[in-house]
Amino acid sequence: MSKITRREFLKNTAGAAAATTVGVGSALWTPEAFAQAKWVPEKGAKLRVLRWKRFVQGDEDLWMANTKKFTEKTGIEVRVDNEGWEDVRPKAAVAANIGSGPDVIVGWFDDPHQYPDKLVDVSDVANYLGAKYGGWYDVCKKYGMKNGKWIAFPLGIIGNALVYRQSHIQAAGFDSIPKDTAGFLKLCQALKAKGTPSGFALGKAVGDGNNWGHWLLWSHGGKLVDEKGNVVVNSKETIAGLEYAKQLYDTFIPGTLSWQDPSNNKAFLDGQISLTANGISVYYAAKNSTDEKVKALAADIQHARFPIGPVGKPTELMQITQMFLFKYSKVPNAAKAYMAFMMEEEQYGPWMKASIGYTCQPLKAYEKNSVWTDDPKATPYRDSAALMLDHGHAGPLGYASAACLADYIVLDMIAAAASGSKTPQEAAAEAQKRAERYYKV
């Protein structure tokens, strides 16, 4: 077999994403091609991957099918451990501390910034993918990079939007979701009066709780830190947001203080609530259900962006998931080859479609994937990466921002004020003290 030169490799992998996918049978997936890409798999390499457990079956099915394809093309055996959302972060932290565990982690937010010195520089992979697929969104660069290097790169953004029953909204006297927070509160009050309440996670929900909670804080002009990383959460803007949270909580179904990420999915599909914040997984579950009663919900489900608060602009947080590689791995080149393979259009495009857009693209070329137009109900999720703020807003990402998110400081503050266990002033003051412990490090 003739060797592929670097010039030929770059020529073959340049251009529009749709025209330059790496074919399953392509000679590009040879040892020579890996050499040109600097990802020569170590002899006898085996990989272990830790990632979050699916909320839509198509995600996991295609992930495992793509992994099998990688093994068939490279001979590299890959073990994938699918863990609960709340379990990935502590397992990754343990691996970082003891220097042993999975080679590749598919984790959350800026967790890599908690142990950047223990991660392999993946700039070669990230730069290759960015050049080939239209570039990374700015928010993805902020999450993946530190000091000019990529310590991780986003696999995708699990879009978060309002999920609601159209017929129940109309029965409550509204044609659509109000565009402002004042109108949104009136809608939630009307839904409760009709016996079809809303419900938003206030427990330790990595995705749904953090996402809607930060929206609520930011929509009123509050923020955990300023641009320089000074903790400023104990402010009049935060107090206003917490007063609003208290009014909103009064319209919720009981039990939301203990909700984790699966809880609102179940409540919605059980018919207990008519409005929540979630990914497209609720719609996916209804659409593919074998229970005719649940399946009938799909036609009534709609999605909308969050309303605008007093701050006067969109203030949304989405669930960003990143791939990173620990230095303790004995097979870093094999790991890089796997990470790149899973992001190539031939694998990534069908994966997006199989999960009907549950994970939004981090690379701009994938905006054109037909998943966003095949079903108009997926369209509100398409621009998640372009729309979202990073959770460290307005300060830098790093150890402190990652630790504050992992410690649920913002979400705990909102839960305490909303439920009345603390006054808004007490909740904000406590959050200020908790955050200062991290930002002083």
What descriptive keywords fit this protein?
441 residues; alpha+beta; D-Maltodextrin-Binding Protein, domain 2; 2 domains; six-stranded mixed β-sheet; 20 helices; 11 strands; disordered N terminus; TAT_signal; Bact_solute-bd_prot1; transport
Structure summarized in a few sentences:
The chain folds into two domains: 38-157 and 320-387, 3-Layer(aba) Sandwich (D-Maltodextrin-Binding Protein, domain 2), CATH 3.40.190; 161-317 and 407-439, 3-Layer(aba) Sandwich (D-Maltodextrin-Binding Protein, domain 2), CATH 3.40.190. It is 44% helix and 12% strand.
Give a written overview of the molecule.
- With 441 residues, the protein is an alpha+beta fold.
- The chain folds into 2 domains: 188 residues, Periplasmic binding protein-like II (D-Maltodextrin-Binding Protein, domain 2); 190 residues, D-Maltodextrin-Binding Protein, domain 2 (3-Layer(aba) Sandwich).
- The chain is 44% helix and 12% strand.
- The protein is built from 20 helices and 11 strands.
- The strands form 3 sheets. The chain has a 6-stranded mixed beta sheet, with helices on both faces.
- Helix 10 packs across helix 19.
